[in-house]
Write a structure and sequence with these properties.
This protein is mostly beta strands and about 350 residues long. The chain is built from one helix and 24 strands.
Length: about 350
């Protein structure tokens, strides 16, 4: 009996040692933000064109009494740019140079407001609403939770300069899961127009994380328990799936997606949620490159910019949600994408 117990103890020790030695080393965050009131989910980075060191990170606080928090690069909350009194804001995205009228272009953030079944649109950095209270989405859906928006990505067409919002939801059919809306500014203000329904769905869990490469006009989204799906973002290029990849590299949920673009190289950085890591893929070939540990737990959303953000983040910035009501900021060089 003593020998058996000794063997069991030895085996447990070996397993423990293996697990310790195979754990990825943590890349420590440069900044951890102040905490939100409820439940962080998804970030978006606005690069200030006049002074990059004054750039803003927006992040959702996903709750019935939720908010879009604004953080400076030290992770401090900017209260006068934070949007409160929202009903479960889920995901947020940002786009530059939206043609508001004949003479004015503005940068904008868009986010889903799940419990009001709508998306919102605000100008940045003055944080003025442009949507007259919100644009309803999935209005033709009657099934339980099929009209509850979650993920959102903005796409500005390099061909037409039109601005689109691509929206995911809590549940839906196995095809035409995503709705794409044209955001139009005219003499009556800004309004939205449904232009297409597209995108396959495995039928398991949901589709939340969406990201668009404006330059190539490609949209990527996480079919959480199945694969990363890849489509054309330009409506006129059709609704056929380009590729479905990456499933074998994730423990369970495939979550937040960020696109890092350099002059001659691009990367897709995707949250491996239950492994508490991120998987990096080559943007052009979609080949797996590596897995990294940034210290976050159960990451939903993430965002990235390769722009130099002053002395604080001279090599660009990667932002990831952490399940302790905060976000982690990493100088992009620490991810060693170019090595």
């Amino acid at each position: 009996m003593k020998k058996l117990k000794a063997n069991i103890i030895f085996i447990c020790f070996v397993v423990l040692m293996i697990s310790c030695t195979t754990k990825l080393p943590e890349i420590v965050a440069d900044v951890v933000t102040e905490t939100t009131l409820h439940d962080t989910d998804d970030p978006a980075i606005w690069v200030n064109p006049k002074n990059a060191s004054k750039s803003i990170v927006f992040g959702t606080d996903k709750n019935t009494e939720g908010a879009i928090y604004a953080f400076d690069l030290d992770g401090k909350i900017i209260e006068d740019k934070t949007i409160r009194n929202l009903k479960r804001p889920n995901n947020v995205d940002l786009e530059y140079g939206f043609q508001l009228n004949d003479s004015t272009k503005v940068d904008v953030i868009a986010f889903t407001e799940r419990e009001r079944q709508q998306i919102r649109l605000f100008s940045v950095p003055d944080m003025k609403p442009l949507d007259n209270g919100g644009f309803p989405v999935f209005t033709d859906e009657k099934g339980p939770e099929a009209n509850l928006p979650m993920g959102i990505a903005l796409y500005k067409s390099p061909e037409t300069d039109k601005l689109y919002a691509i929206v995911g939801r809590k549940t839906g059919p196995k095809d035409k899961y995503l709705y794409q809306y044209h955001l139009i500014s005219d003499s009556l203000g800004v309004h939205s127009e449904l232009v297409r329904k597209f995108g396959e769905f495995s039928g398991v869990k949901e589709i939340e994380a969406i990201a668009v490469d404006d330059e190539t006009g490609i949209v990527y989204y996480s079919d959480e328990m199945y694969c990363i799906r890849k489509y054309y973002a330009e409506p006129l290029k059709g609704d056929d799936e380009i590729y479905c990849f990456g499933k074998e590299y994730f423990k369970e949920d495939i979550e937040g997606i960020a696109i890092a673009k350099y002059q001659d190289k691009g990367y897709l950085i995707v949250s491996n949620q239950q492994a508490h890591t991120f998987n990096v893929f080559d943007l052009k070939t979609n080949a797996f490159i590596k897995e990294i540990n940034l210290g976050t737990i159960e990451t939903d959303g993430c965002d990235v910019t390769t722009a130099k953000l002053g002395a604080k983040f001279p090599n660009g910035l990667f932002v990831s949600m952490n399940n302790k009501k905060n976000f982690f900021f990493h100088d992009l060089k620490k991810l060693k994408l170019l090595e």
